[in-house]
Amino acid sequence: MKKIEAIIRHFKLDTVKQALVDHGFGGMTVSEVKSYGDEVSQKEIYRGSHYEYDFIPNIKIEVVVGDHQLQTALDALLAAARMNAASDGDVLVTDIGEAIRIRTAEHGEVAL
Questions:
Q1: What mean pLDDT comes out for the span 63-82?
Q2: Which contiguous run of DSSP H or E holds residue 44?
Q3: CA 46 from centre of chain
Q4: Which of 47, 91, 92, 107 makes a 20 to 30 Å CA pair with 75?
Q5: pLDDT in tens, 16-43
Q6: CA-to-CA distance for 111 and 99, rounded, in angstroms?
Q7: Whole-angstrom Cα distance, residue 87 to residue 85?
């Protein structure tokens, strides 16, 4: 099993979610995160004062898939999230040793 963690732009969430659902991946965890990297810092004016901040708000999607499903999930996610810009995001893939569904105590890919 593999865990896919993708950091994407906020407005791409619905597109990425639908692409994954269309390819049979319905379960995912979504979190609001802030990232720092190659993106240009943002500047705002609040009550007449200028502020500059480096941490950019993004969305983190986590999906666990079977080894045989990995490439399909990655292809769907990348196609939906890509805008060919420096701040498109990142994808990390890690190995998962075990998955257990609490309600039924099922183990492995069956628990997904």
A1: 96
A2: strand 42-46
A3: 31
A4: 107
A5: 999 999 999 988 999 999 887 766 556 6
A6: 6
A7: 5
Q: pTM, whole model, 2 decimals? A: 0.82
The total of other beta-carbon atoms located within 10 Å of residue 8's CB is 24
pLDDT at 47: 76
* SS3 category, 82: coil
- Flag the least confident range among 3-17, 19-33, 49-63, 64-78: 49-63
What is the C-alpha separation between 14 and 29, in angstroms, rounded?
Answer: 13
**Helix or strand run (H / E) with residue 43:** strand 42-46
Residue with tokens 């500047």: 43
> Degrees (nearest 5) of the Cα angle 19, 61, 85?
75
Strand partners, 92: 5
Tokens 């666990």 correspond to what residue? Answer: 64
Per-domain residue ranges for the chain? 2-111
Specify the CATH number of the domain 2-111: 3.30.70.120
Q: Is the pLDDT of residue 92 over 90?
A: yes
The three-state secondary structure class of 8 is strand
